[in-house]
Amino acid sequence: MNPAVPPLVEVRGISKRFPGVRALVDVSLAVGHGEVLALIGENGAGKSTLLKILAGVQPADSGSILVAGQPVRFRGVEDALGQGIALIHQELNLADNLDLAGNIFLGREPRRFGLLDLAAMRREAAGWLAMVGLDLDPATPLADLPIGRQQLVEIAKALSTRARLLIMDEPTSSLSAHETETLFRVVKDLQSRGVSVIWISHRLGEVKELADRVVVLRDGRNAGEITARAEIQHEQMIRMMVGRDIDRLTRRPSHPPGEVLLAVRDLRTPAHPKHAVSLEVRAGEIVGIAGLVGAGRTELLTTLFGITPPVAGELRVAGRPVTLRTPSDAIRAGVALVPEDRKQEGLVLGMAVRDNISLVALWPESRSGLINFAHERRLAAEMIAALAIKTPGDHQAVQFLSGGNQQKVVLGKWLAMEPKVLLLDEPTRGIDVGAKAEIYDLVHRLAGTGTAVLFVSSEMEEILALADRALVMHEGRLAGGLSRDQLTEENLMRLAAGGTAGRMSA
Q: Does the domain made of 260-496 have the CATH classification 3.40.50.1820?
């Protein structure tokens, strides 16, 4: 930033307290004109609270906000928008039943003689869409667009409010590699036009590529700042975020595999009925499934768990044939699934930690109409201790836990049933680097006890760190398999794109 020019937006000494929690303590930061500032920190560090204060969603208890050097006070989102500050949430705030123009101007529709001026709205929408690289008819239904393009529509919507600062919260969490590249190009183009961006992400590679500066929060306080692009390094960011070195994100020695616990033969999923999938996972083995978005990885796991019954094929667990009609069939066979979307599919957010953990393990008892509450409390205590779940107590509603601790609760729910086979779909999506290391440790410990682990991940680094071997899917089929000594990013990408690499090791 030019010290002679006031920052576009500056916060000074912001503090915020919630019942029993000090979310922010004397936090300060500034973002310059046309600057990309990365805001990083572990889950619970205070990032979300700070960005909500900046966007007028909630007030600070103390401290000040300055725009172009002038103090401002936000009584709501409209006040922040009036100052050119727009927040783009991780979960997109769009209406599937409207077209693109309707989404961009929702609640701000241009009018003529008191009536909706549809022609003007679509004409203006076309200009904002073009600014983010979308050459689309504004009358196109939003529901027709993939998630990556919907993200760009959200940005166009923010820009239409004359936003000078875009706050982007985990903007690539649901995007493919290609969609992420497109978003990066748009951000760099906006930066060249003088638009500033606060970029919040757990993906430190993104931060290194995009950010001009990095501000780090830890435990609700400023933990440091990296002021030069050349100094933005992965290891330094981790140390500043967690206050210690993390050496647990690299590949570990594998455990000698035992008997085949999961055997799949000629399985055809409803999503890709033309392609038969065959694979095996042994006791103590961790097998990763890589591939591009739409390759059929999640669909394979949901079929193996009985959510979507297979079109054809055979499944054996510990040598016994299993007929999959519902998830209950999979659970009875000893198969567990940690889904990609923990909030919608893995947890009952309003229920206590204890209740979530015991949902599956006490299922046989609950079917009789009786629950052993002493057993439930004992089970919850064991899982909280074993997984190091940070919670005020087993009575705490899971919606108030950090993303990493929510993921541990999901894992605890399934581990309490002692599964033979554990299926993991994007096991560390949306959690910070410290929690990620803890999840990796847990998966390795489970493998050490003889559990067979089959996991899907869109992060190549995660495949390399966790997998004893990897299978790669392409358009619903297994494109190939890679043994441990063949696991490289190059081989993974070649197979994911439909090429060949190494021998099949399914």
A: no
